[in-house]
């Protein structure tokens, strides 16, 4: 009986359930789609690494200081002798040993257009020698293998994107120089392209042009099956001795998955985070839906109780309806999630990662997560109205056709909401005034949670006051329609509060993110204006600037000087015996002319006089002062002791965390061959020179190197802003889902409200309210609710964003910037959202038959 009653009720209100169903579908689709995409990508790369990894890979041992062997700005890759390959080939259990040369510090350029070939961010550009191995990941599908010093093979995906083919020219720029080749072959991946661009030359050319010596970067060993990979590894380590690292196929696979996984995990958790926001917003929609359905079925519930139905049965009846909604929504969401996963796969193809949409991996975790999320959230959201329904006494329900008064519960709710909001506000204030950013961040997170929950709980109390103010002009502007709209919005504060809360959450996050990013841009620009005297910035990107590039910049007419900057890996040991692994920033003498260091103690000029700079916090933590000496270990036995010449003030992101010293100083301890390439150079225009013309000249001097970024100060600021805005737009796009669900909530509330007020609407029409006035009334009610949510969201977002800026003020985010344009746009968009949300409900209300509406019980 219980199931039959629930099913009858569910299908009787299937139109009213549709919008709640959409909210569940969208949320579940995000969760299941993300998991399917993650499973598919992981499986694809597992197959790639498993099918291409050698049994053991021999490389030079990683340096203890400086991280990866293939430091792209190091200028020279770590190599092993050719004899190593010959030695490994003679070992028992080895079928073949192949010497390979692969580097990631080369740049591919189309000489016809002087544009880079391959990805410029994210996936690497890998250049090496073409050798046949038992597990080649590519095969030549057009042309032939490189057969001379002027021939090169390019992977098919990169060739297609760059418009290159057989016979096309391809330039390779390495730390050793520029080399021109002709494409002799096109190679296609046998499994999947991980997104990298790959180019191959013959072994002799690779050794000469890419690493500058007759050696290999690795030796790939393949066994004959008589020994396990672990045995081959142990044998290799015993044979080769120290200075080498050996990885089995399993270890190579794990390392490859770790590199790819960091990117995939970022996407996975970001999307799951926004799915959580969508679920939260959708929860309010479901609560509203079931609250209104319960209110409309009060007499029916009273009859059930009168004929013997218990409170538990009434409660279960509503929850069974929610269960049906959750199961149906989860099923549809699971299907939509597969579509979303395929869309993500196509997006990855656009950036070069070729995953196969025909091999979707739907593990057990996908349906489990989909149904857990959809069903649990729906049932939990319906529990509050279900509990309220079960508390309706039979006589009150039959007599009043409405829910019982809950004045006491409303007072308790309001008190709890005020306490939570006040506590959250106090935490935000404490976070803004915290001495340490870490402490402030913890307080901020808790303050955000409490203020959000507090606003949701106290929403009905705020609705009564705020809606009255927002709707104050409606009677004067729109007459009876405006007065009715204002009163309708205030009629059920709990419903209005819950509807507005959904919109509030999305907009609060948008405004908060806008304040933070706007402040980031403002702070960065202010710091550049205050601290940077250089007129031009030349950034080396992922590969750094070779001496040839630096010389080209120095030869530019109109430049007074060029300041070089290198990042040298090092370990610092302070007098208290503690060590810090950090990069020393080595600069040329004109650094103090191009940058204004914020000095707490000492003199900035000392940086180029054999001293080192440290930050204020570092000096405080280790009880350091000017003149104290720090031991600097650059690795490979290169060490020196440097006195502290200047302590820099904290709070400037351009200098915080940097340890400045002169290139000449570092060169006394580190041979020139071991120094990295310049990460960037800075130029200063000569007195009287035209700054704009000199920029053009500098760009012309470096036009042969398209991988370099050449900007003046204004251009650099624009570059920073575009990078920040890219992140912001992504956040906007993902938060758009939450706002879409919130709009559905407004539509659902209005639609159910129209059904609930059918008799009232009929009476209004009967006494003279026109269809146009009726539709206007509903539209205005929708606009007021949307504006109410927007105002709450704007207030919360501003509080969160301002507090976040204050928390990070000591870390360089010292300029507060309020994006007034975004706020105004948000409020205007809320009016539009209200109008759009009211279209369908207003249309349905206008079509009601007056007599039938009046006769409705």
Automatic annotation (TrEMBL):
Family: Belongs to the ABC-4 integral membrane protein family.
Name listed for the protein in its UniProt record: Putative ABC transport system permease protein
GO CC terms: plasma membrane
InterPro entries: ABC3_permease_C (IPR003838), MacB_PCD (IPR025857), Macrolide_Exporter_MacB (IPR050250)
ABC3 transporter permease C-terminal domain span: 274-394, 734-849
Occurrences of domain MacB-like periplasmic core (ranges): 18-233, 496-699
Localisation: Cell membrane
Residue ranges crossing the lipid bilayer per the database entry: 269-295, 318-348, 368-386, 414-432, 444-477, 498-516, 727-755, 780-802, 822-843
Main location: membrane
Keywords: Cell membrane, Membrane, Transmembrane, Transmembrane helix
Organism of this sequence: Kitasatospora atroaurantiaca
Record membrane topology: Multi-pass membrane protein
Lineage per the UniProt record: Bacteria, Bacillati, Actinomycetota, Actinomycetes, Kitasatosporales
Annotated GO MF terms: transmembrane transporter activity
Superkingdom per UniProt: Bacteria
């Amino acid at each position: 009986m219980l199931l039959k009653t629930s099913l009858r009720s569910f299908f009787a209100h299937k139109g009213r359930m549709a919008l709640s169903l959409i909210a569940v579908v969208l949320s579940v689709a995000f969760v299941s789609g993300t998991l399917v995409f993650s499973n598919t990508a992981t499986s694809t790369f597992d197959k790639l690494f498993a099918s291409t990894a050698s049994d053991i890979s021999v490389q030079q041992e990683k340096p203890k200081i400086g991280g990866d062997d293939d430091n792209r700005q190091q200028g020279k890759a770590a190599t092993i002798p050719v004899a190593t390959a010959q030695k490994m080939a003679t070992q028992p259990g080895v079928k073949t040993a192949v010497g390979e040369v692969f580097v990631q510090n080369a740049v591919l350029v189309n000489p016809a257009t002087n544009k880079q070939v391959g990805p410029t961010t994210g996936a690497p550009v890998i250049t090496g020698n073409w050798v046949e191995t038992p597990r080649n990941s590519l095969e030549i599908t057009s042309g032939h293998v490189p057969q001379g010093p002027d021939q090169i093979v390019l992977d098919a995906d990169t060739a297609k994107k760059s418009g290159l083919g057989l016979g096309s020219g391809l330039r390779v720029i390495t730390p050793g120089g520029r080399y021109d080749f002709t494409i002799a072959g096109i190679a296609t991946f046998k499994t999947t392209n991980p997104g990298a661009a790959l180019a191959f030359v013959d072994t002799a050319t690779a050794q000469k042009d890419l690493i500058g010596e007759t050696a290999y970067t690795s030796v790939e060993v393949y066994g004959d099956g008589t020994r396990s990979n672990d045995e081959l590894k142990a044998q290799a380590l015993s044979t080769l001795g120290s200075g080498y690292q050996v990885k089995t196929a399993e270890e190579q696979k794990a390392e490859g998955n770790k590199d790819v996984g960091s990117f995939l995990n970022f996407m996975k958790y970001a999307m799951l985070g926004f799915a959580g926001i969508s679920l939260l917003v959708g929860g309010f929609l479901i609560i509203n839906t079931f609250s209104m359905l319960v209110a409309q079925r009060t007499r029916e519930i009273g009859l059930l109780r009168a004929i013997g139905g218990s409170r538990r049965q009434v409660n279960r009846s509503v929850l069974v309806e929610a269960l049906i909604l959750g199961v149906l929504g989860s099923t549809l969401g699971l299907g939509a999630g597969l579509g979303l996963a395929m869309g993500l796969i196509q997006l990855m193809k656009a950036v070069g990662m070729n995953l196969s949409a025909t091999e979707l991996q739907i593990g057990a975790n996908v349906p489990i997560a989909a149904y857990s999320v959809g069903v649990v959230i729906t049932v939990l959201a319906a529990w509050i109205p279900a509990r309220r329904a079960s508390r309706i006494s039979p006589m009150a329900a039959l007599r009043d056709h409405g829910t019982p008064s809950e004045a006491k519960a409303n007072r308790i709710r309001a008190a709890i909401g005020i306490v939570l909001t006040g506590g959250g506000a106090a935490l935000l204030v404490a976070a803004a005034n915290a001495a340490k950013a870490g402490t402030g961040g913890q307080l901020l997170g808790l303050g955000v949670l409490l203020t959000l929950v507090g606003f949701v709980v106290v929403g009905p109390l705020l609705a009564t006051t705020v809606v009255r103010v927002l709707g104050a002009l409606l009677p004067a502007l729109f007459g009876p329609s405006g007065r009715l709209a204002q009163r309708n919005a205030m009629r059920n504060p709990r419903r209005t509060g819950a509807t507005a809360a959904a919109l509030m959450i999305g907009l609060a996050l948008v405004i908060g993110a806008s304040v933070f990013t706007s402040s980031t841009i403002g702070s960065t620009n202010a710091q550049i204006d205050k601290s940077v005297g250089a007129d031009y910035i030349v950034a080396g990107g992922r590969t750094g600037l070779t001496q040839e590039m630096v010389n080209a910049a120095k030869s530019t007419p109109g430049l007074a000087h060029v300041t070089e900057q290198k990042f040298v890996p090092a370990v610092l040991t302070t007098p208290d015996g503690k060590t810090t692994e950090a990069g020393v920033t080595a600069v040329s003498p004109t650094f103090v002319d191009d940058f204004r260091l914020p000095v707490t103690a000492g003199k900035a000029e000392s940086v180029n006089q054999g001293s080192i700079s440290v930050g204020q916090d570092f000096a405080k933590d280790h009880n350091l002062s000017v003149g104290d000496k720090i031991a600097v270990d650059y690795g490979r036995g290169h060490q020196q002791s440097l006195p502290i010449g200047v302590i820099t003030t904290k709070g400037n992101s351009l200098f915080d965390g940097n340890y400045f010293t002169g290139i000449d100083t570092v060169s006394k301890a580190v041979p020139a061959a071991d120094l990295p390439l310049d990460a960037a150079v800075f130029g200063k225009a000569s007195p009287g020179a035209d700054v704009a013309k000199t920029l053009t000249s500098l760009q012309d001097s470096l036009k042969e190197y398209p991988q370099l970024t050449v900007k003046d100060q204004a251009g650099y600021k624009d570059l920073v802003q575009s990078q920040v805005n890219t992140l912001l737009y992504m956040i906007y796009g993902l938060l758009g889902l939450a706002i879409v669900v919130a709009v559905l909530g407004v539509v659902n509330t209005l639609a159910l409200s129209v059904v609930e007020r059918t008799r009232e609407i009929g009476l209004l029409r009967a006494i003279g309210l026109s269809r146009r006035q009726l539709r206007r009334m509903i539209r205005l009610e929708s606009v007021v609710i949307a504006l109410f949510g927007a105002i709450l969201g704007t207030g919360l977002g501003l509080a969160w964003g301002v507090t976040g800026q204050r928390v990070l003020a000591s870390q360089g985010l010292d300029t507060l910037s309020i994006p007034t344009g975004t706020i105004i746009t948000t409020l205007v968009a809320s009016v539009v959202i209200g109008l759009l949300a009211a279209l369908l409900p207003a249309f349905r209300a206008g079509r009601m038959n007056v007599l039938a509406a009046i006769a409705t019980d």
